[in-house]
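RECORD TYPE: protein structure
NAME: SAWADEE domain-containing protein
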Amino acid sequence: MPPSGRKPKAAPSEPRRRLQSRLEFRATVDGAWYEARVAVQCGALRVMYEEFLEEQDEWYDLAALAASSVRDVAKLRARFRVPSTPLEDTQCCDLQAGARLCVSCLLDGGDLKFYDAVLDSVFPAAHEIVDGMERCACRFAVQWSDGPRAGSMEEVGIERVCCVQSSPVQDPVLIEFLDGVTKLAGDANRETVSQEICVAPVAEGGVHANVPPGFQWKFGSSE
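PREDICTED:
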């Protein structure tokens, strides 16, 4: 299940060096976006939510994904993206109607989650200078794309707004794992996702014949 927002991990006594690249991941249960890291362990893709307990990690088994359709693998791939960036106080004038945003949403019970929205319009306001820093006082009318308020409009302040990035995900572990699973699912060209997927041919030793070089050795089950 996705993080509830109520059980964050305790802050480490000393900062840890980040070894994996950060991603945003859209949880299946609530459709909200969370910062996450990925790793491949025991033949499965492990999605680790940042700042939340390990028991809330999600696992995606290699064998189960390989037995599914390419459409299912593509749906999983679409749930990852590069992290959205907070809208800076000096950037409000750069936003255009239709911009894709990721906006914080305070839910009943006090949970704060992030859902996608589309910018409808900006209501300009004079900026203030606080402690020598420019502070944006503009308001932003957004239409929620996802979440419990999907389809409705809301006016929000800049402190709630992040900008969705268009650059592609470049996490090498995630890309190699999903590309390999796509081949195992039987459609390397990704052109027939609406058709029934055939089982990939098996070569000597039980390894799929069309698997990428080294994939089974790196990601296959340890059995």
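COMMENT: Residues 23-82+169-219 form one domain.
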